[in-house]
Structure formats: C-alpha cells, structure tokens
Amino acid sequence: MGRRSKNKQAAPEPLEAPSSHKKLGKRKADVDLDVDSTLARPTKKNKDLDGKWKKSLTKEPKAKISVKKKTEKPPSSNGDEGSGWEDVEDDDVTKVEAKSLFKNSDESDEEAFEGTADDLNLEEDDDMLGGVPQHFDFDSDEDEEPQMVRSKKSKQAKRPEKIIPTTSDASNSDQEEEEEEEEEEDEPLTRSNLAARSRKLEAIAAAEAELADEELRAAALEEDEDDDDVDMSGEENENGDMDAESFHLPTAQEREAEAGGVPDVHTVQRRMRECVRVLSKFKRRAEAGRSRSEYVAQLVADIANYYGYNHFLAEKLFQLFSVNEAIEFFEANEVSRPVTIRTNTLRTRRRDLAQALVNRGVNLEPIGKWTNVGLQVFESSVPIGATPEYLAGHYMLQAASSFLPVVALSPQPNERVLDMASAPGGKTTHIAALMQNTGVVFANDANKARTKSLTANIHRLGCKNVVVCSYDGREFPKVIGGFDRVLLDAPCSGTGVISKDASVKINKSERDFTLLSHLQKQLILCAIDSVSPESKTGGYLVYSTCSVTVDENEAVVDYALKKRPNVKLVDTGLEFGREGLTSYRGKNFHPSVGLTRRFYPHVHNMDGFFVAKFRVEKKVKGTSKSKEDEEQAIQVDDDFLRAVGGQPESVDSTMNGFDSDEDRPYLEDAKRRRMKAKGLRPPPRTNVDPNY
Ligand SMILES: C[S@@+](CC[C@H](N)C(=O)[O-])C[C@H]1O[C@@H](n2cnc3c(N)ncnc32)[C@H](O)[C@@H]1O
C-alpha cells in the first residue's frame, strides 16, 4: 500500500466494469443514488485502497451497496451569491449542519438543540453519557497540549482522516502500525503516556503531511512518464500497451449523437478511465489519427457529466492539475471535510475545552501541529453547534482552512487591524483572541444583513476590541486607514468549498469569474492603501480566498504587485501548502508569487484555499499615478463593468484603475463605446477575445 494511503482521505472510488446499465444523472448532492458497487463513492473506511485513483482500478468489484449522497447545505439565501464564504458560523446554518453531521451517529439521534443556555439541563447532559466523566491530569508541565482523550473508546471502526493527509512511520508496515495504534488505544491513558502519545501523533502528522505533498508533486511531474500504476485488468498487451481494440474514442459525430440522450454511466466511467490512461502516455496509447486535445475534450465532458459540473467550470478546474490529480480533486469534492472547531482563548484553554467536550461524549483530537487552538471532531453524541460550551463562546465551529489567513496575518496585541470582508466573523474573532482583546479590530462587511451574525459571534465569543461597520471595502481607506494589519478574505467563487456548497458546480459562469476577479483587484488595492507603511509592529496585508482558480488568486496578487510598487510578497509563515503558481497557461507572474500558498481538499484534507501575505512599504516618489490618471481609470472601470453586464458601484474616487493585459480587451471595448457615445468613430478592434 502506498505511503499516502493510510491516513489520507479515502481513495476515490474504483471505476469498475459495468454490471448494470444505469443512466448517468447529475451528481447532485440532494439526490439519493442507489447504485451498485461500481459507482460507490469513496468511503472514509476504505483504508485498503491506495490513495491513487488509478491504482484502485485493479480492485475486484465489491458487494452491492447502497450509496446515499450527503445532504448539502442549501445555497445562501441572502442574495450574497458569489461571496464564497467558507465558514459555517451563521447560527442557523451551524445548527442545521451540526444536526445533519451527527444524525447518523450510532449513539444518538437526538434533535439539535435550539434553545438558549438557560434551557439546558447540564446534569441531564452528563447523565446522557451513562457514566462518570473520566478525570485527567492536565496540570502536568510536561506538555502544554496533551493528546485529547476520549471518555469512552471510539465507536468508529476507523477514524475519518486527519487534516493534512498523513502516512505512517517508514520503519513500520501499515499492519504493524495499526496493531500498535490499537494497542495504544487499549492501553490506559496515564499522566506519563498522555504527553508522549500527543507528541508522537503530531510528529507523525507533520512528517506525513510533507511526504504526501512531495508525492503529489512528484506524481504531477512524472505524469507523462510513469503510468504503470493504471491497471486495465488484462487489457494491456505484453508490452504494456493498450489493446487498440479495447477502447475507441468517440468521433465528433458520435459525441453529438450521445449528447442527444442521457449517456450510460458505465460508458462514461470507462471512458474517463481510458482517457486518463491514454493521456498519461499519449504517444504509445492514442488511437491513430486522434489528437491529445480530443481525448482531453472527451474527458472534460465526461467529468462534467459524471460529477455534475457545468462544462465551463469542469474545464477551468481540470486545467489546474495534471490529469490524474484533476480526478483526485473532483473526487475530493464529493467528500465532506472533517468537522473542526477553534478554541476561543478569550474564554478557555484548548485542553479545558477538550476535556469538557469529551465529557459530553465528543470524540476529538488536536487538528495538527500548525495550530494550537484547533480541534477535529470525529464523532459526537451531542449537537456540536449547541453545547453549553458553544453557547458560552468557548469555541467557534470553523473550517480548518479558515485559520490559515489569521495565522499568516499574525496580529499583535494593541495593534489596529482591519478585517475588510469579515462576516460572519470566524476570522475576526480569531484575530481578536490573538490580540487578547487589546487594540482594535474593525470588522467590516458590505452586506449589512450578514453583520448580524458577525455581531452575534463577536458577543458570544466575548470580543471586546471589535468595531463592526458596513462599507463597501472599496471605500477604504477613505473611511478609515492607517492600519497595522489588514485582512482581505475576499468574496470569491467558492471553488475551494464545493463539498460544502455543491451549487457552485453549476452556477458559476465565465462572467462570474471576470466580475469577481475585477472586484478582488479593486478590493486588494484599497486594502493595500489602508495599511500604514509606518506601522512600528506591522505593515502587512493578508489576501485570502476559498477558491482555487488562478484568476482569483495569483492573478490578483500579481496585479497588486504591478499596481503598487511599494508592496512586496513575504513568506506566509504557514508550514504547509503548495507554492503559488508563478506561471499559468502562458501567463507569467512575478517570481515572488511563489511565496503565496495553495491548499487543496485532495492534498490537505481541508477546503481549497489561497493565502498571500504582503509587506507594505513607504511609497517611493514618482511611482504612483497622477490623480488625473486615476480618475480616467475609474471611468474605464465603470465602462468595463457595464460592458460585462455588471453595475458600476458608487465607489470613492481613490478607487484604482485596471490596465493589466487580461483586462485589455474589456478596456478597449469600453473605450470604443465611449467614443461611439460621443459620436466619434472608434478604431478597429485589436486581438478580440473570442469569448467576449
Ligand atoms: C469570504 S466571505 C468572508 C468570511 C469571513 N472573513 C469569515 O471569516 O467569517 C466574503 C465576505 O465579503 C463580503 N463582501 C462582498 N463584497 C464586498 C465588498 N465590496 N466590500 C466588503 N465586503 C464585501 C460578503 O458579504 C462576505 O461576507
């Protein structure tokens, strides 16, 4: 078994030979699929499978099983489409999610708690555990953060994956390790072994995370060379080549004919498998006379069908990865990420919180070495969004990925910090806690309705240094500036959180990405201008999104570097994550863009995320644009927005111009319209984008 497989998120499902003829339907979250094993989704218990999709092709078909798709959270109803917020802390949403998360627990099917803290009978809660809570000695000075213990042995046969997929120690076989783990679990927890066990787990997790990352990089590099791990179940000839008869890539006419009806799911599965295989060794395996792009086109069409994406988004996401890795990414989007909580250090310590939750029947562990406030919840007999500790503000239900930008921001006590797009406040409250309720945090969000949940969270978590406001972020720094640090957790497409919000699969168009990227560019320049280069302790901006697309991440960062010569990218301080892309599809970014960090569901077992950290320095004279230039640019911006169908917003005139190469066609078009409106004859178009 591969090194990555043991603790990694379960391997994507095997795409086996058909045994029945189901028709392919869109893989929407709310649909119940009763399918045979050939369609089984990856399960977290499937530890035997190698982490690689292609290897799993060798597996024998399993017994018939019924796969019930998870119920997805409904898309936001607040009209905030496209905001791409990845936290789940809106109170109602949290309760619903917590309820659905644990409704299948074999211990309890109780309703999620809907009342207030006063309605809770704590004694009854304790009784529910069916015994006296265990007492642990957390006062040992051996270890600040002991391994979290369970009040009773886990009922899960196998635990879900840890965040940041991990593999095991090189000296032991997987079986030996499993045995060791089991022995350890049976061994009583004592003061002396508690700390040691915690340290061991964290060391393993760190080593494994690195290994997993390395393996994926190597796999991407070797894509064209090493494809021996695709087992076609005897369809290869003795030279390892595919039997030419065994797979025929449909012609354009055949595809057209198929498009008329609903394609057979097994045909699609097989074709995906074959296309991946051919593309991994194209020269040797391709059908004579067929081009690479034909195979890619077929594969993308099948991915869109199979996973239920619109074709545009399937292609956009596919292009981010090697062929094999793309499949891993799409598969990972079908699986929920681990439930995680952040300890609110304004109210409690992680060890105390863990003890309190363990006593309520919650099975948890620290998330990993990189955070000393995160806990991963494996199982709970109580609704995790409605425990007394939750209501008392001891923790925030928060995706692990959303800790990252705050860790990168590293706010210090007594600073002035701006959180420019802050609702519902997962990151704001984290910032306030790191500042130990000193200094001041301006928590801004353009959407007034969303500031309600933001305010509620700020109160619940006991943050006393936060000022809530509701401006369009593009009005900063005119509203207020001179911050030591600014966080711009930008509104985005949410392509990193598809497992939470499957509606992204079908509701994002090319125009959405154009508009979002444009807005993000406007916001990032305003965020930069809100940072005080004179700050004695800071002078930093962190830009983040829960999206994996380049136009919302590296392209925005690169744009900011070009437009603001007084900023430079610095190390995020995050211990893991892939380097940001310095070139993509013919576009080159500034080499320092490699300092940004990308996080992926299939690599790190957390939501897809992007983090960039800038240091803002004093402006050098002569590098900024004249006021006239800026005003001219603003006019062009508004025209640009109209040109792509958006509405120009009433934004302060310090807003910034757009003149990067990618915006050029739009800007030209806007100019032509202006000239026409003035009765002038516009010049002929140059290099018109066919998509525009
Ligand atoms: C990714 S979410 C923020 C999540 C938040 N940082 C947290 O951790 O809970 C993006 C937010 O940007 C807000 N937003 C959208 N456009 C904005 C703008 N022009 N100015 C400021 N905020 C905006 C949305 O209302 C949304 O709440």
TrEMBL record:
<comment type="similarity">
    <text>Belongs to the class I-like SAM-binding methyltransferase superfamily. RsmB/NOP family.</text>
</comment>
<keyword id="KW-0539">Nucleus</keyword>
<keyword id="KW-0489">Methyltransferase</keyword>
<feature type="active site" description="Nucleophile">
    <location>
        <position position="546"/>
    </location>
</feature>
<feature type="domain" description="SAM-dependent MTase RsmB/NOP-type">
    <location>
        <begin position="329"/>
        <end position="617"/>
    </location>
</feature>
<dbReference type="InterPro" id="IPR001678">
    <property type="entry name" value="MeTrfase_RsmB-F_NOP2_dom"/>
</dbReference>
<dbReference type="Pfam" id="PF01189">
    <property type="entry name" value="Methyltr_RsmB-F"/>
</dbReference>
<feature type="compositionally biased region" description="Basic and acidic residues">
    <location>
        <begin position="45"/>
        <end position="63"/>
    </location>
</feature>
<feature type="binding site">
    <location>
        <position position="489"/>
    </location>
    <ligand>
        <name>S-adenosyl-L-methionine</name>
    </ligand>
</feature>
<dbReference type="GO" id="GO:0009383">
    <property type="term" value="F:rRNA (cytosine-C5-)-methyltransferase activity"/>
</dbReference>
<dbReference type="GO" id="GO:0000470">
    <property type="term" value="P:maturation of LSU-rRNA"/>
</dbReference>
<feature type="binding site">
    <location>
        <begin position="421"/>
        <end position="427"/>
    </location>
    <ligand>
        <name>S-adenosyl-L-methionine</name>
    </ligand>
</feature>
<feature type="compositionally biased region" description="Basic and acidic residues">
    <location>
        <begin position="93"/>
        <end position="106"/>
    </location>
</feature>
<feature type="region of interest" description="Disordered">
    <location>
        <begin position="1"/>
        <end position="195"/>
    </location>
</feature>
<feature type="region of interest" description="Disordered">
    <location>
        <begin position="645"/>
        <end position="692"/>
    </location>
</feature>
<feature type="binding site">
    <location>
        <position position="445"/>
    </location>
    <ligand>
        <name>S-adenosyl-L-methionine</name>
    </ligand>
</feature>
<dbReference type="GO" id="GO:0003723">
    <property type="term" value="F:RNA binding"/>
</dbReference>
<dbReference type="GO" id="GO:0005730">
    <property type="term" value="C:nucleolus"/>
</dbReference>
<keyword id="KW-0690">Ribosome biogenesis</keyword>
<feature type="binding site">
    <location>
        <position position="472"/>
    </location>
    <ligand>
        <name>S-adenosyl-L-methionine</name>
    </ligand>
</feature>
<dbReference type="InterPro" id="IPR018314">
    <property type="entry name" value="RsmB/NOL1/NOP2-like_CS"/>
</dbReference>
<dbReference type="GO" id="GO:0070475">
    <property type="term" value="P:rRNA base methylation"/>
</dbReference>
<feature type="compositionally biased region" description="Acidic residues">
    <location>
        <begin position="221"/>
        <end position="242"/>
    </location>
</feature>
<feature type="compositionally biased region" description="Acidic residues">
    <location>
        <begin position="174"/>
        <end position="187"/>
    </location>
</feature>
<feature type="compositionally biased region" description="Acidic residues">
    <location>
        <begin position="83"/>
        <end position="92"/>
    </location>
</feature>
<dbReference type="InterPro" id="IPR023267">
    <property type="entry name" value="RCMT"/>
</dbReference>
<keyword id="KW-0694">RNA-binding</keyword>
<dbReference type="InterPro" id="IPR029063">
    <property type="entry name" value="SAM-dependent_MTases_sf"/>
</dbReference>
<dbReference type="InterPro" id="IPR049560">
    <property type="entry name" value="MeTrfase_RsmB-F_NOP2_cat"/>
</dbReference>
<feature type="region of interest" description="Disordered">
    <location>
        <begin position="220"/>
        <end position="242"/>
    </location>
</feature>
<dbReference type="InterPro" id="IPR011023">
    <property type="entry name" value="Nop2p"/>
</dbReference>
<keyword id="KW-0808">Transferase</keyword>
<dbReference type="InterPro" id="IPR023273">
    <property type="entry name" value="RCMT_NOP2"/>
</dbReference>
<keyword id="KW-0949">S-adenosyl-L-methionine</keyword>
<protein>
    <recommendedName>
        <fullName>Nucleolar protein 2</fullName>
    </recommendedName>
</protein>
<feature type="compositionally biased region" description="Acidic residues">
    <location>
        <begin position="107"/>
        <end position="128"/>
    </location>
</feature>
